[in-house]
């Protein structure tokens, strides 16, 4: 039992390096995209020991699910940055 625990950490480290190397080769060939498995593993192990990392991962997940809407910003029409002019149009009440 002690031997399994003693070799567990170096074994998982070597496995992580091997998986990371494989993913790097696949990414260079253009066959793989998205979040690497090795990066996810390192994030989860770090979150196990640091509570703030867990909060960061949850925040990242929640912001990735939010959608961006173009209507949230300033209107695109009427703004000319090259000439430095803004045209405002008044809407007539109905």
Architecture overview:
The mean pLDDT is 80. The protein is built from 3 helices and 2 strands, in the order αααββ. The radius of gyration is 25 Å and the shape is elongated. With 94 residues, it is mainly α. Strands 1-2 form a two-stranded antiparallel ribbon.
Which key phrases capture this entry?
single chain, 2 strands, mainly alpha, 94 residues
In short:
With 94 residues, the protein is mainly alpha-helical.
Provide the fold topology.
Blueprint: H1 2-29, H2 37-49, H3 51-65, E1 79-80, E2 85-86
Antiparallel strand pairs: 1-2
Helix pairs in contact: 1-2, 2-3
- State the helical fraction: 55-70%
- The dominant shape is elongated
Distance between the termini: 80 Å
Helix/strand class: mainly alpha
Run of helices and strands: HHHEE
Kindly provide the radius of gyration, computed on alpha-carbon positions and rounded to a whole number of angstroms: 25 Å
Low-confidence stretches: none
Assembly state here? single chain
Q: If you average the pLDDT, what whole number results?
A: 80
* Total strand segments: 2
Percentage of residues in DSSP E strands? under 5%
Strand arrangement, largest sheet? Answer: 1-2
Largest sheet: 2 strands, antiparallel
DSSP helix count?
3
């Amino acid at each position: 039992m002690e031997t399994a625990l003693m070799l567990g950490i170096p074994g998982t480290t070597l496995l992580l390096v091997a998986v990371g190397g494989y993913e790097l080769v696949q990414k260079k060939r253009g066959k793989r995209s998205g979040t690497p498995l090795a990066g996810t593993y390192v994030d989860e192990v770090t979150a196990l020991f640091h509570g703030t990392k867990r909060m960061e991962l949850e925040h990242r997940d929640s912001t990735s699910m939010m959608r961006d809407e173009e209507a949230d910003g300033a209107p695109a029409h009427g703004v000319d940055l090259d000439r430095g002019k803004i045209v405002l149009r008044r809407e007539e009440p109905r």
